[in-house]
Every structure is written in structure tokens, then in C-alpha cells.
Predict the 3D structure of the following.
Amino acid sequence: MTTASHPHTVPDEVRRTFGARVHSWVVTVDHKRLGMMYVGFGLLFFVIGGIEAALMRTQLAQAAGKIIDPATFNQLFTMHGTTMVFLVGMPILLGMGNYLIPLMVGARDMAFPRLNAFGLWLFVFGAALLYYSYVGAQGLYGTSAAPDVGWFAYAPLTSKTFSPGNSTDYWILGILISGLGSITTAINLVATILVMRCPGMTLMRMPLLCWMMLVTGILVIIAIPVLTGAQAMLLLDRYLGAHFFDTQNGGSAVLWQHLFWFFGHPEVYILVLPAFGFLNEIIPVFSRKVIFGYALMVAATVAIGFISLSVWAHHMFAIGMSPELNSFFAATTFLIAVPTGIKIFTWLGTMIGGRMTFATPMLFATGFISMFTFGGLTGVMLAVVPLDWQLSDSYFVVAHFHYVLFGGTVFGIFAGVFYWFPKATGRMLSEKLGKWFFWLLFLGFNMTFLPMHISGILGMPRRIYMYQPDRGLELWNMISSIGVLFQGIAVGFFIWNIIASLRNGKVAGNNPWNAWTLEWATSSPPPEWNFDQVPTVGSARPLWDIANPQDPDSRHEHHQGEGHQ
Amino acid sequence: MSVATSTPSLPKQWQPSRGKVGMICLIAAESCIFLTFVVAYLFYIGKSATGPQPKEVIEMPLVIVNTIALISSSFTVVLAVKALERQKRSAFLGWLALTIVLGLWFVGGTASEWKGMMEEDGLYIGTNLFGTTFYSLVGLHLLHVVVGLTMLGIVLILGTFGFVRDRHAHSFDMLSWYWHFVDAVWIIVFTTVYVIGR
């Protein structure tokens, strides 16, 4: 393989005016640019959602805090949750899939490039609509600004009676529209993975990230439409006088919970499976070993996809379901821990005996494994119904899902950002600043969320805007709030790192990590057409095969029974 | 630049068509939206305390004629696809036009059904839970019929002016899949509303 470089793409762009450059980004159908815009918007909203969280922690730092009034606090936790799930997790993960999948399967673009652009702009429109609520939701009523019904928007809080202004409508429409964007992106990802693979790339030779994205895409296709349907019903309730969730006229508040969580729980796996995928790429490269148990990892992923569709009501143990239903959903929740555990051991098995180096992507990957396992174990605790009755809606639950979604998903995202930033920009991120970022974030994260387990067990409910003194909660809340400070400084290091590295970071070259998958075969950044010549592969590690012609993987894979499908 | 391979012969790869995968995914997503409304319908059967009940307002003969029209349109659209593949232009246009007429018949029939329910029986979306679930489920399906008819109509207009050739057969076949989906969903809706729910 020759070292491909494409200098002619860059100066051409530099010469253009600012307006022409913006225009080229708006009209682009290039999966790489669209993917970078997804990630860029996602990181922007990560900062906004982080500021919302910091405001809440400021209020809760001391007992009987007086900084934020209750109505604003309700808006803050609603917007923080909605932002982090729909405007941070989804776009960054789907966006990175968008960027990486065509490169990894050796394609020149996604299966439907224009649909891809449509999906991005739907997402941006939905996000803008949600945040416009701060200005526009006052409507004719002059009441309320941003949505304040919580990210899961339980009925009957969302009915016209209890939510008179337009804030809930902005929540519904913003999420509905960005949800349609997610569905189109998922269709595109599934089609790209199944249809656009280069010659030789059988399903069992795909990088594992492609498998994770395939299952994620299928989950998006199944789960998001259920939320869309439920939101359409809610709109009918609010505007045409229908009674789906109208408890005054026979409607059911519990139906909303079932529909929401039928979407909501697969959503959790939508948010974590791609992050698993990042680890599957990063851990082998920084252990200098083949992934341990490729087929097992694929099987575990598919199993998680299936089981995740049947665990939703474990969010609803406290509403008084029948013992049979409680037992069923507790059992499925225990069950899903098994394939997840298999993945943890697969990563550990890859690391054992490897020559590990701890560059920033690997730091975040190992941080992911430890923190996600911690959150997974508290999840198994919460699946025990009697324990859940005690801990439901307490800060223990807040601690649990932040260990999974922050310690898991967000750490995975940063592992991926540090790993693929050189590919996308041609420049390395600074290792020194990256290590500061990781350790400050790791420290701040644990300071904030570890004490929440204790304040939750002591009985602090989630979503309260203040708590009385002398309940033994002051110390734990103070530590949580100080932790936010460290996280804030850490994110400052990250932003500094991005800006500094874009300007004068080390030039990356095609394959700075000495990795084995196809995205590292082309130049950094890749040309618009990705590959000058559509590649052909003979194993799951094509770049290893080129570097080691005396001992290519393809010679071994037939013995393992892999490679054919 | 090329990524060389060390295996002389490439293994056989399963690589379906782009349009088929995309359309199957779209149909799966749409099915999940319908599933949500069907679940809500089943959940609320018999829970309307006041207002007209299904037995009092549903006119089966009208619905059955509607159903026959819609199901037949699935057959005519298949004939249109076959005609396009064999480059029989007038047969293609004829079967396509008949498909659209049958679809329009369904829309008109539903309109007269709804008119009767509203004017004679006083059943609106806000009257009771039956009204809520009935109009939204049947209405969601009707919306899909209208979208399908719009797309078929565009093909008919383009076809009349000679822009649809046999190389478009695959795309038109995908559109016909969507139309089959709309028909298949009607069988589910029919069973839910007019068989189980009556």
C-alpha cells in the first residue's frame, strides 16, 4: 500500500471565502463532514447540558439553598436530561458511526448520502426547537418557559391542565423531529453495513464497531418510533381533546409509562453499544493483540439487542404492577447482565498478556471498563424489586445511571474522540493535556457521583430543589458539588486541547496508532471519496496483513471457523 | 492505493440491494409506530364509560367494500410492476391508474364512514376513549394511504409523459413494497378495530 496523501483538497478550501466555506458545509452530503457536524453539535450541547447540571449542583451544595427557585430547577433537570440523552449521546454516537462506518467497511459514502444530510438537519432543527422554548414557550399564556415535566414527561403532568403554556409542546416537537432524524440515520447505517461492504469484507470480518452500530441501528428503528407514536398521542391529547393519557376521562397515565420506557430502555443500550464498539477497536490496538473472542462479542451484542427490548418495566417497579410482572422484568434485567459481563471479560481477556500502552484513548477505555462495571453492578442491585422499592427515585438511581451513561458512554465517547481525532483532522491531540483531562474528569466524576449513592440510601429523593439541614445530607451534597468544579476544569483542558492541537498539533500521518482497520489505510483527513481505489480485504485486520505478509490473519481465520457467513 | 489481499479467491458475500434494505428498515420503523397505536387501541377496548360504543356506529358492509378495494390494489400494483419490467407501457399505466382509483375509493369510503359517525352518531375524537383510539388508529393508516397515493400519483404523472422506463422498475418495485405494507397494516387495523374491538 502506498502512503496516500491528498494535498490538493486542502488549499482549494483555504482559498475560498468564509461564506463559501459555510455554504459548502450546509449543502454537503459527505458522510465525514456530516459526522463531524453531528459530533460538533453534540459537544456544544454537552457543554450546555453540563452548565445546567452545574447550576443544579450549585443550588444543592448547601442545605436549604436559595440560589435557584423551584420552577427554574424543574426546567433545569428536564433540559439537562433531555439534552444529554437526545442532543449529546445520540448525535455524537450516531455521528461517529456516520464518520467511521463507510471508512471501516471500505465504502466511498453511506448507502443514502442525501438522506444522511436530511437526518442531520432534522436533528439540528429539533434541537433548535427544544432550546427555542426558553424564548418562545411563553406563548399567549405568559406561563412557563422551558419544558419542566422531566425528561420522561410522565402523564398527567403533560396534560393541558397541568402544563398550560407551550413548553411541553416544544419538548414533544423538538424530540419528535430529532427522533425522525435518528431513524433516518439508523436506516442509513444498517443499509451501509449490510450493502456497502468492500470485496472480501464478510460480516464476520467487519470491525466490531460495525456490529455494534448494526445492532444499535436496529434498536433505533424499533424503539424510537414507539416514542414518536406516544408523542403523537400526547399531541392529539393536548390539541384535539383526545383522552389517551387524560386520567380525568378514563385515559391511563401508566400507558404513557409503558410506551415511554419501551422506548427508554432500548435507548440506554443505543447509548452504550456504540461506546462498546469504540472499546472493541481501541483495546486490541493498545494491547497489541487480536480481540479475544470476536464471535462471542458479536453474539453478546445481538443478545443484548434482543433482551433490551424486554426489560423496560424495571423502571416502573414502584407503580404497583402485579408480582408476576415484577418477577418477569426483574428476571430479564438480571439476564441482560450476562452478555454485558461477557463483554467485560472479553476486553480483560484481550488485555491480559498484551503489551499495553496507556495513551489517552486507552486511559478512557480502561476508565470505561471500571466505571461501567460499577454502574452495571448497582443496576443489578436495582433490579431486585424490594430494594428498588426503597431506592426508586432516590439519588442512588441518579448515581447508578450516571456511572453507566457518564462513566460508560461519555468515557467511551472521549476514548473514541482521542483515538479518531488524528484521522478526522490530520493532527494528534496533545497527550499531556489529554492526561490532565482524563485524571481531572475521573476524579471529578467520582467525587460527584460516588457520594450520591450514600445520599440516596439516606433517603434523598431525586429532582428536589432543596433539602432540609440536619438530615445528614450536607456533607455528601457538598462533595458532589465540589466534584463538578473538577469536571468543569477538566472540560476546559479538553477544549484547550482541541483548539491548540488543531492549530499546531503533531501531524498524524495515515496510521498514528499502528492500527489494523481500513479507516487507517487512507490519508488523514481522508479525501472526499475516502479511497482512491476500493479496497479488498482478506481478514478482519487488513492492515496487519499488509504489514506482515509472512503471517497474515487470513491464514488463521479458517481454522477458527470465522470469515465465512 | 490498494489494500492487497493474501487470499486469492474472495469468500462469497451476502450483499442485498440498497433499496430493499432501506425499505425493509422503513417498514420496520413504521410498523413500530402502528404497533404503538394498536396496543393503545387494544388497551382501551371496552373502557369507554359514556358515548357511542363500537357496535352502535360501525357499518360493516361499507368497511368490507373498502377493504376489498384496498386489498385488490395490492394485486393491481404487482401487475403494474410486472408490466414495467416487460416494458409494456400502456399496461403499466393502466394498472397503475387502477391502483390509484382503488386507493382513492378507500379514502372516499373512509370519509363517508367518518362523516356518518360524526354527524349521525356524534362520535368525535374527544367524545370517549373509543373515539380517541378509533380516529387516531384508522387516521394514522389513512395518512399512510394518502402518502402512498401521492407517490403513486407522481409515478403516474411521470409515466404519462414517458419518464418512467424499465430501468426504474426496481425503484417502482420498492414503492410497491410500501403499498403492500399499507395494505398489510390495514389487515391488522381491520382485525383490531372491526373484529376484536366490535
Observations:
- Chain A touches chain B through 67 residues (CB under 8 Å).
- Residues 70-104 of chain A form the longest helix (35 residues).
- Chain A has 17 helices and no strands.
